[in-house]
């Protein structure tokens, strides 16, 4: 029989295909559906729907999600965009990605949170949720009885962080930020977890990587989405790719490329992993904030090198009088800088990163 098949290569190909299909069918037969909120997704299928954030004090919202449940077993990868609703390239990238991946050809499960902060997205607000004026990415792990931002964070922690194996928190320059693409490698202090998160950052592929050992280690006040996952022992990175509230194709593509390479790195889809070989490591960073309210006039550009003490901008009051000079805290790269005039006391003006030697 085998000899006959060898004499007819097309028959051999058909037999191999049938066997491969049978093996996949047997593998998926014991694989349970993935349930998330109202969704129950069978292996080899994808579905979209909403996670509900319950009403309190007359305020409620929802979170649009897609689950792509692979035919074969593998990790659960959570991709989260739109914690800040004015950061469009990651949001648009995830809407495209939901239709790019065939679950029948995928291992594991991909959970896409398209817009984590719908109130901010629909009202086009930078940084803050308009109902409570809190920064959603500063209130994790959230509170089910708290304000709207805190309740959104609670739902994301319960339904996304606690359900995933790996998490990528996807950001970009907000509507007022000119930003150089970079990612945060958050240091946990655990050797194996730090190794895995380092590999994750290299796989996503943004050239500048901040080595961030500054995040709180308190699980009850984890503040940031990515840090919440880290404190639960799960590899997570935060990425920044896009700027100034734009929807530039190059940054949408950069986010898509990063996710696809992470999927290859996790062996969820086939293909060669393109690991970043020449990263620029940033081992110190500082966000410079304003001491006054007024108009900001930048004198440096994102991606440029500045010297310690160099003037990088100034602020005038609302009558146009100069009231504050802004100087670089140390020598390094301008990772982002505010590009619009309004600034309130205590808000960020720019971020400077020191390159690791």
Chart the SSEs and their pairings.
Elements (H helix, E strand, L loop, with lengths): L1 H6 L1 H21 L4 E3 L2 E3 L3 E12 L2 E11 L2 E10 L6 H10 L9 E7 L4 H6 L4 E2 L4 E2 L12 H12 L6 E6 L5 E3 L2 E5 L4 H14 L3 E5 L12 H7 L4 E5 L8 H17 L14 E10 L4 E5 L6 E2 L4 E6 L5 E6 L4 E7 L3 E2 L4 E8 L2
Parallel strand pairs: 5-6, 5-9, 9-13, 11-12, 12-14
Antiparallel strand pairs: 1-2, 3-4, 4-6, 7-8, 10-19, 11-13, 14-21, 15-17, 15-20, 16-19, 17-18, 19-21
The unreliable regions are: 18-23
Distance between the termini: 65 Å
Helix content: 25-40%
How many E-type strands? 21
What is the molecular shape?
A: globular
CATH architecture of the largest domain: 3-Layer(aba) Sandwich
* Mean pLDDT value: 93
CATH topology of the largest domain: Aminopeptidase
Order of helices and strands: HHEEEEEHEHEEHEEEHEHEHEEEEEEEE
The main pleated sheet reads as:
13 strands, mixed
| H/I helix tally | 8
Q: Considering the protein shown, what is the CATH homologous superfamily of the largest domain?
A: Zn peptidases
- What top-tier CATH class of the largest domain fits best? Alpha Beta
Number of domains: 3
